[in-house]
Amino acid sequence: MTDTSWTSKRREILEEHEEIRARILEIETELDRLLDHPAQPGESWELPGLVEALRDQFRRHFEHEESGGLLWADSECYDSEMLRLVADLIAQHREFEREIERILSEFDFSFVPGKTVQSCFDGDLRNLISEFAVHEAAENVLLDKLVARVEKQRRQLP
Ligand SMILES: [Fe+2]
Ligand SMILES: [Fe+2]
Known about the structure:
Blueprint: H1 3-36, H2 47-69, H3 80-105, H4 114-156
Helix pairs in contact: 1-2, 1-4, 2-3, 3-4
The protein binds fe (ii) ion (2 copies).
One fe (ii) ion (FE2) binds next to helix 2, helix 3 and helix 4.
């Protein structure tokens, strides 16, 4: 694979990271608002829709990263340390998917006081968000390292 295509792949992934970050900001804003103005049982609220949208973005993004749109397809570009990191990152994708599905499946709160349930979601979602920030930061570092390696290999060609 040429360094130009790695550069454009990196750009695509970084753009997706930005789009996901924008959705997460919407969720954080909504969580802040809900802490001040809890939704009442039976009342419609925006949070489940936002989290569903994030779940769909996660699915598309993880599939893109794992199906060669990102790094994993070209394993000869990795050293063994990078390969271990890639395996960890893929395992984390499955954990994020399980966790967001769990949160979504518990969103029906019609029989529990709104404020209690919302504080639970607040904690769970903010945990998910901060773990995801660590995940994406690791990927961004890996991408930079990968592009640097590919560029170095290209310079060493006769
Ligand atoms: Fe990822
Ligand atoms: Fe990512």
